[in-house]
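Lab notebook, bench 4. Still working through the backlog of constructs that have no structural model yet. Next entry is a single chain of 419 residues. Request: give me the structure tokens for it.
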Amino acid sequence: MLSFVTLKDKQDKIDKVQRWETEINATSPLWLKLMAGKDKLQERSGNNRDLPMDPDVLHATWEDMQKKLAKLKEIIEETSKDDFASVLGKIESVESEMDILRVNIEEQTKSYNWKCKQLGGSSRRQYQAARWKITKMASTLVEGGHDSGFAKFIATRICDQAKYNEQTWAVLVNPALTDFDKKQLAIWFPDGENKLTDEWSHNMNSNKDAVNAKIISLKGALEAHERWPSSIGAMNGIKFEGEALQKDMISGDMEGAGPWMGAIRLSSHRGEFSCISSHGLPTFFYALTDMVVHLTPMKDLLAGGIMLEDFTSFCETPSGLSFLEKHSRIVKVPSTSLLFIPGACVVHVVATEIFNIEKLGYFVHQPFASAEILDEIPQQVKTAIRTRASQHYDTKPNSEMWKARAEWFAKILPPPAGA
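Model written out:
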């Protein structure tokens, strides 16, 4: 049987192969959609599991097809119309392979998009869960007396502490006593083995009855005064002893030099000088329940023209929140962990996770009046600390514990000669 092939038939086949080439070249919609899906999956850290084809195999098949089409077009062009019947089988074979490749590319693209959608949904769920956690915590902080903007600031940094702490000052973690830099923020967790934490554990255990009695006393004070956000008091008769605690201490034997305990309601606002009684002096902070401590360097505040007495209201302004973004730090202090707060910091304490029935958080703080540290505090900051401490002490004229603390403070940080 004779096969009659015209020049038009031959050109039609060439045009068909060219359409296939156009369909799968690197700029074709089919291929671009595939690559877009692949790139999006990589951006979302997706994997290649459960795809119809291995991406490398599909890419190799695509490259092979481009070569086959170029070769087939060349064969068609060089074959005479009299011998053209021998080429038709090759065209049909390549057309079948093209159909398979087209389907594979389309299915691979659908799979990329489906996996991206699943990841997108997961990412959105994770984002929404994180935002919900922040919103819930901020709402609770507002109920506790925090300004809404400051509450959101605190909640955001508590929920994503690692991210924000990379942008602020460093903290030593479980440093040995020989590596303890008294000018730097440091924290010791309960699972660490360290002489300093051993001394704290010994002091807390040896004074267990007094510690429990103070907890009961502070709890009673808050029960009697429902509007109080917190209560603090001197742990009279208790002296925390040990090489690390007593070394370089000034006037450590004075009555006002001892440890104090604080009790704070869940999410209540307790900041500035009403938070801890050491008033800008270096301090050990021991958490009896999970606590969060927000620290702001006084020198940065004063350099910005902000007086210490204006700190709380400053935190409620947009410029204040912007300032805190750059200069302050949030530290989570788990139960039975010990935090060292260097001198000249404004301290804000908040309890965001309390599981006891009373919804009260407890902490102990002990001033660490090292001459080495005090000598390095700028005179402007010392003056501001004295002024603010005096303002606070003046509001407690009938409290013996505050009088004792004021006398100790005056000896620790006396006014300059001639003042």
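Notes after review: The CA atoms of residues 308 and 388 lie 7 Å apart. The chain has 15 helices and eleven strands. Flag for follow-up if needed.
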